[in-house]
Amino acid sequence: QMRLAESGGGLVQAGGSLRLSCGVSGGIFSRNHMGWFRQAPGKEREFVAAISRGGSRKEYGDSVKGRFTISRDNAKNEVYLQMNMLTPEDTALYYCAADSSVRSLNYVSTDADDYEYWGQGTPVTVSS
């Protein structure tokens, strides 16, 4: 059973930056492609970013392209989300997710239903 734990959320002013981290335990991290999702109050869960097992392929949601960067360190069993130029619209609970299904090395998914394991989320609040 894999366990995911997000950290790094907090309160930041518009235009600022935050770096989220997600530590993974209980599985073989390098076999998982990883994703970040977010859910704002009263809104549906939204895809933010995903990264393939080896880290060579990355996908981003349209609302964060050019501002957010996903990365991973397979030696540390961690995935990161660097968030720059934050706006109040980025305020949400941010979740890390893992898909341990057998996939190709460069596979990524933007569909939350493809991810089996989820963290508890870390809150991000951007003030105007």
Structural class: mainly beta
Mean of the pLDDT scores?
96
Helix content: under 10%
For the termini, the CA-CA separation is 40 Å
- Contiguous runs where pLDDT drops below 50 for at least 5 residues: none
Number of helical stretches of at least 4 residues: 0
Beta strands, count:
11
Radius of gyration: 14 Å
Largest beta sheet, briefly?
A: 7 strands, mixed
The topology string of helices and strands comes to EEEEEEEEEEE
What is the overall silhouette? Answer: globular
User: Which strand-content bin applies to the residues?
Assistant: over 45%
Describe, in plain words, how this protein is organized in 3D.
With 128 residues, the protein is mainly β. The protein is 0% helix and 48% strand. The strands form 2 sheets. Strands 2, 4, 5, 6, 9, 10 and 11 form a 7-stranded mixed beta sheet that branches. A 4-stranded antiparallel beta sheet has the order 1-3-8-7, with no helix packed on it. A hairpin with a 4-residue loop joins strand 7 and strand 8. It is globular and about 40 Å long. The mean pLDDT is 96.
